[in-house]
Amino acid sequence: MIKKIIIILIILSVQSFSYVRAQCTLKDDYARDLSESKIFRQLTSDEKLYDQVTEAWVVLRESGQDFATRTNLELLKSLGKDLKNPNYSGLFEHLRDFPEDYYLWKQIKENPFKAYEYAKELPSWNNFKKTEFFKAVTKKGTDFEIAMLNKVKTRTGREYEKLKELIPDIDQRKLISQMQFCIPGKSPPCNAKGEYFIADQVWIKYDEFDDIENMIIVDAKLSETTALTSGQNAAKNQVTKGNLSYKPKDSKGLDINFQELPTKINQGDAIPISGFYKLYGDGNQNFEGVIKL
User: Fold this and answer.
1) Contact (Cβ atoms closer than 8 angstroms) between residue 181 and residue 246
2) I need a surface site. Which of 102, 129, 141, 192 has the fewest CB within 10 A?
């Protein structure tokens, strides 16, 4: 019995020594990478960043990455941020134990639209994959929205001409972007979630007395089948039936091209909505058409 205990103690001592030696080697390698790279000063002046980057470096080192990759600060920050994210606990635990799967993380970051095709056998990564996919889709939609706005604000090109076919008096309207309105039935400040929405393009018509006559909302969507938000649907259902109240405290005095409006728009101003249109693309960045909703 005593002999068995001695053998176990010897084994544990050897394992403990091996672990300590491995840890020392890891620390030495990390110190060497830092001293030979250009990121040392940035890390030593930011304790939080240093901690974040350290865990990422370990994953990169253990997965066999070269010096340039291990000391790429942007990569270290991106990976480190995900490893520290409490919602991605499965990601951290997995990469800690299986650093070679760093390539799966890299694939998802580089092509988030295929996130669900990667790491199918790792359900603990579901939150990470879902979030990366959602962020990519949101960015793609925002990029399309901005691209379309930049085109129509020049009042030239195919996009504007298509709008003009459906809105004959668009030349006389002022264009404002990203206007916040309370949903029907609500009035400012309407700050709670679901009480307001942001209109992409707002084409406002003034009368001969410089008073607002009505507005038309145009929302840019990646494809014809992309759904409206609940706030946008509520606004669409108000077309020709009622008004929408302007939400912000600050008055709106300039249009999209920084030209003065005939009359400023103030918080609580109720503007009649006379039309709601969807300007849509092919699912990427290419314009397809406009439909009245």
Assistant:
1) yes
2) 192
Residues 6+ apart with CB under 8 A from 119: 101, 104, 108, 125, 129
pLDDT per position as a tens digit, 20-43? 344 456 677 777 777 777 766 666
CA distances 122 to 28, 75, 83, 105, 252, Å, are: 33, 23, 16, 12, 50
pLDDT (tens digit per residue) in 216-241: 999 999 999 999 999 999 999 999 99
pTM: 0.74
CA atoms within 13 A on the CB side of 136: 17
147 lies in a domain? no
Number of domains within the chain: 3
Residue 246 carries which DSSP code?
A: B
Instruction: For residue 180, tell me if it sits in a domain.
Output: yes
Q: Is residue 56 part of a domain?
A: yes
